[in-house]
Structure formats: C-alpha cells, structure tokens
Amino acid sequence: MTLQETFGARLRRAMDTRGPLCVGIDPHASLLTAWGLNDDVDGLERFTRTTVEALADRVAVLKPQSAFFERFGSRGIAVLEKAVAEARAAGALVLMDAKRGDIGSTMGAYAETYLRKDSPLFSDAVTVSPYLGFGSLRPALDQAVLSGCGVFVLALTSNPEGAEVQRSTAAGGKSLAQVMLDHMAAENADAQPLGPVGAVVGATLGDAGVDLDINGPLLAPGIGAQGATPADLPGVFGAAVRNVVPSVSRGVLKHGPDAAGLRDAAARFADEIRAAVASV
Question: What confidence tens digit (pLDDT) does each residue in 180-198 have?
Fold first, then answer.
C-alpha cells in the first residue's frame, strides 16, 4: 500500500479484502470503566493499545474520535499519535474523527495537522464540517489530493438537532445538505474507483431523501448503540450502498477488553454488512 495510490483506490481495496467496516475508537469514560480501567491517561493508553492490536490487522478502517484523546491534553494526544502510526503500520486506514471546520489559514493548519505526510497525526482521512461554506474546506480538499488522502464532509448526520441546519432550504430550493452533496460530487467528478471526498450520512435516517450519487465514499455512523442495523443500509443509501463505509463503535468496543471478543464482534458486523449490501 502506497500513498501514490488514490485514497479511493486504497479504501475500495481495503473494504473488498477486509470487509466494509469502520470501527470507531471512542474511549468514553463509561467504556474505560466497563473495561475495568481508570479514566486517566493510563486507562486511555491501555484501551487504545488493546483496540489497535486486536483490530488494525483485519478491519478496513479505524476511526479514532479525537475529542476523547484531547481531553487528557498533551499526554492524550501522544497516545493518539502512537495509535494512528501503529494502526496504519498494521494495514488499517485511519479516519481521524475531528470534525474540523474553519476558514483560511486556520483551515489550512487543520489540513496540515491531519493530512500532511510529515505530521505526527497524519491520517488517511479526516472528518470536516462544511457549514462555514463548502469553499472554506478548500485547504483540506487540496491537501488531501496532494497527500493521497480523503476528506469526509458532514452532510446528513444522525443527531436529531442536525436537521434544523442540514434540512433547511438553500437558495434554489434544494436542502442545504443536498447543496453540500452536489459540491462533493463535483470534486469527485471522473475519479476512479471513488473520489477523495466522502460524505457523512447517518445510518439512522431511514430514507435519506437526497441524491447520494457523489462518486465518493459514504461514512455511515449510527449502527449498533444508536439503533441502526446493517439491514437498514439499503433503505437509507439505495443504489449507493456499495460505497458505504458503515461505522460501529460501542457495538464492537463493548466486547473488550478481551481481544478475541473485539475481533469476533467486528467480524460479525462485517459479515452482516456484506450480506446487506449483496441483497441490493
């Protein structure tokens, strides 16, 4: 695996060979407690190391939630840096769930943090928010192409509050989410097999009610603890379901700290997702 390949090619191969599954690394205080760990840096490090060692050599994507590391300051970020490097070395693609969004040089600095090859937090992709205007993401979009990485843009999220912004009507009569999806499709035009710009669309939405044909990956959080199941994916994503990267966090992590339990849970979800996709 080299970064001379496009992100879309690397992601497609990872999903085809390892299964279409993204597992979140979300060290909630409640999960640390459930694992018998203290809610401190040592507990964070043990939780993260166990998850990476159990899953990084077999799942397509690992998605650390940056906030749960940031809350411990520089020592937490050090744990995150090590996890990113070790997960990528084991063959997993790392999607940094940071949801950054800003303008100008600040957005450029975020892009360099996660998408520049010599950064300690260099990841295969990062989540970003477009709601300062899609054009505000240009530094991240450009850096992603330069580094062979991806950017996942919030479109229709699984939290109920998101609808008041994302479902609002933009100029021209389309929903704001559809406007953002149209921008993503334009960025991905003519890319093969997938473009570098993905959309975040919640698996809990039922019929999404938007055109998801963006020629890019669709990150689908909400499976497991949030109530969606693999069987729900065809109804939400329709013909685009083969490009979906379903994301499960607590549904897998609750089976730790036993490494075999984590692996078995991830394998079950991957198998169920394959079956759901094959039914379309």
Answer: 999 999 999 999 999 999 9
CATH of 7-227+239-274, one of 3.30.460.10, 3.30.1300.10, 1.10.10.10, 3.20.20.70: 3.20.20.70
Q: Which residues are catalytic?
A: 99
CA dist 82 and 45 (Å) reads 10
- Which residues are CB-contacts of 39 (< 8 A; sequence separation ≥ 6)? 29, 32, 33
What confidence category does residue 207 fall into, taking pLDDT thresholds of 50, 70 and 90?
Answer: confident
On the 0-12 / 13-18 / 19+ scale of CB atoms within 10 A, 173 is exposed
Residue 228 backbone dihedrals phi, psi, to 5 degrees: -80, 155
Domain boundaries, the chain: 7-227+239-274
Distances in Å between the alpha carbon of 41 and those of 46, 64, 78, 87? 9, 15, 10, 19
At residue 34, the pLDDT reads: 97
Question: Using alpha carbons only, what angle is made at residue 114 by residues 111 and 116, rounded to the nearest 5 degrees?
Answer: 75
- pLDDT score of 225: 76
Residues 218, 255, 71, 220, Cα dihedral to 10°? 10
pLDDT in tens, 85-101: 999 999 999 999 999 99
* φ/ψ (deg, to 5) at 130: -95, 10
Type of residue found at 117: K
Q: Which residues share a beta bridge with 169? A: 175
Mean pLDDT of 205-227: 90
pTM, two decimals, is: 0.96
pLDDT at position 158: 86
Sign of torsion, CA 55 233 178 214?
positive
Q: Where are the beta strands (DSSP E) in the chain?
A: 22-25, 61-64, 93-100, 125-128, 150-156, 197-201, 218-223, 244-248
